[in-house]
Amino acid sequence: MKLDRTENTKRNILWGTLNKAITLLLPFITRIVMNRTLGAEYLGLNSLFRSILDVLNLSELGFSSAIVYCMYEPIAKNDSDAICALLNAYRKLYKIVGAAILGIGCALLPVLPRLVHGSIPRDVNLYVVYLIYLLNTAVSYLLFAYKQALPNAFQRVDIISNITTITTGGMYCIQIVILMNVRKYYPYLILLPVSTVINNIITSLYVDRTYPEYRCRGEISQAMKAEIKEKVTGLFITRICQTTRNSLDSICTSAFLGLVVTAMYNNYYYILYAMTGIFGVIIQSMTAGVGNSIVVESREKNYNDLKKINFIFMWISGWATICMLVLYQPFIRIFYGEKYLFPESVVIEFCLYFYMLRMGDIRALYSDAAGLWWENRYRAIAESLTNIVLNIILGRMFGVHGIIIATLISLFVINFLLGSQIVFKHYFQNGKLAEYFQLHGFYLIVSALVALVTVWLCSLFSFGDGPDLLVKLIVACIVPNLLYYLIYRKTAIYRLAMPWILHKYNLDRKFRFLLK
Q1: How confident is the model over 151-194, as pLDDT tens digits?
Q2: In 78-221, which ranges are continuous DSSP H helix?
């Protein structure tokens, strides 16, 4: 079965973007309400425990990605028995994962006080809060979570997005009402596991109705078990890398600098996370389609597609980075207050953090779709160790600056440079790595120049907080894209990528001027 990759990607991006808009906007409003009704210490606690549970999620080992990857070929061949056997294996694995999270999570109870620098709110029991977060994480695995593999593998991520939009959006609305009227932390918190249970039940009912031919039955072959074991091992190492990059930053900030600074850090990081989530919708929407393309198309065609997609993606990424650069401070000032501002240098570091993450996204998309997790194991280990060591050393020496700089070093040197080399060596095998690096260097230089011009133009305006944010938003939306177009339009990569992307999504007539 050859999936309709273009149509599925468009649908997934549409509904995935709506989901992200709601599930990022509402938590942001919730953070503001919590900050004003309960205080920054509660925000710090939320950030800390989410980070700890992200670490515990390593016990999932990457089974979900490995199972979905293994479904690509049976779907292409219409092999229902293999899909059912994989689903059955997935259910068994998730029961073990849920139990492991509960066990390991409870074992961490004695060390919780050591992860908080300074005092905690008087009306909060550290252990009760942690156990609620732990229950929420464990339930997400124990209750029908394995069924999400089917819509993911069939490139119907929009289904999961729509269900999550309804359940999670409803939860945040109720939490906001509780914070504004009851002003108590525990009623707000208990809604987390309740929402997770409702979400999993609705997803299960939908999957049963939409894919009735696929049930948990049969056993996977020994060859498939060996392949999954190898993929899972590589994925586990990769997940360690991702966790040390994101979650341990918050844990180190809490341990070294306290809950208030952790809350400040996460106010800024949440904006980066929100933007990353929007770009993640694009990546997730394309994953199954790229996986299907890898099965049915040549490596040369996939490399040419990578170049085209990466050009458009880095244009959008550069634009988003520039928007963050000029809007970060007025945004934080308006919604959190002057006392929660970091220096401009921290803003630049966060923007570099965001851009470097995006530099590896499309390459990582093809790496994941090709199942190269095992081949990436040493790269992931090196990135994790580098990030942990530099976090501790630079975090103690330079505070928040050191923690972000530690991540930037490991991201660029090990994730981007070494990670790209591995993908080209094991999948593309066409000797085009130098071309790939040259293109990224060109994109980076262009984005830096466009950023300087945009920041200079924005510095000419000085209004009150609200008008200042609005004027800078207008400038950031128009000027960078105009400059990108003027610089790129005569280049070979533009003439290759722009007609392809517009034709692929039937936008030729609406945006004909871009082809001139």
Answers
A1: 877 777 777 778 888 888 888 889 888 888 888 888 888 888 88
A2: 80-107, 126-142, 149-153, 157-181, 185-210
Dihedral, 32, 37, 40, 42 alpha carbons, nearest 10:
-100
Kindly provide the b/e burial profile for residues 250-276, where b requires at least 16 CB atoms within 10 angstroms of the residue's own CB: bbbbbbbbbbbbbbbbbbbbbbbebbb
Which one is predicted more confidently, 103 or 118?
A: 103
Count Cβ atoms below 10 Å from residue 482 Cβ, excluding itself.
Answer: 11
Cα–Cα distance, 437 to 505 (Å, whole number): 27
Q: What is the spatial distance between Cα 86 and Cα 72, in angstroms, rounded to a whole number? A: 11
Q: Which two tokens stand for residue 421?
A: 């080399």
CB 395 within 8 A of CB 403: yes
pLDDT score of 59 more than 50: no
DSSP string covering 444-508, please?
HHHHHHHHHHHHHHHHT----HHHHHHHHHHHHHHHHHHHHHHHHTTSHHHHHHHHHHHHHTT-T
Question: Cα dihedral sign for 279, 283, 286, 290?
Answer: positive
Residue type, 28: F
Q: Count the alpha carbons within 13 Å of 347 in the hemisphere toward its beta carbon.
A: 19
Return the closest-CA partner of residue 20 out of 283, 330, 202.
283
Q: Nearest to residue 412, comparing CAs of 437, 392, 439?
A: 437
CB of 469 within 8 A of CB of 331? yes
Residue 26 exposure: Cα atoms within 13 Å on the Cβ side: 20
Residue 442's closest CA among 264, 315, 280, 351?
A: 315
More confident residue, 172 or 49: 172
CB count in 10 Å sphere of residue 221: 11
Owner of token pair 């008008």: 467
Q: Is the pLDDT of residue 97 over 50?
A: yes
Cβ distance 476 to 323 under 8 Å?
yes
Residues 6+ apart with CB under 8 A from 84: 214, 215, 216, 217, 218
The pLDDT of residue 482 is: 94
Which secondary-structure segment (H or E) carries 235? helix 222-257
Distance CA 321, CA 27 (A): 22
Check if the beta carbon of residue 414 is closer than 8 Å to that of residue 422: no
Which pLDDT value is given to residue 56? 61
**Residue 120 host element (H or E):** none
Top pLDDT among 484 and 10 is at 484
Short-list 424, 422, 418, 423, CA closest to 383: 418
C-alpha span between 401 and 396 (Å, rounded):
10
Please report, to the nearest 10 degrees, the dihedral formed by the alpha carbons of residues 177, 182, 185, 187 taken in order.
-70
Q: What is the pLDDT of residue 246?
A: 62
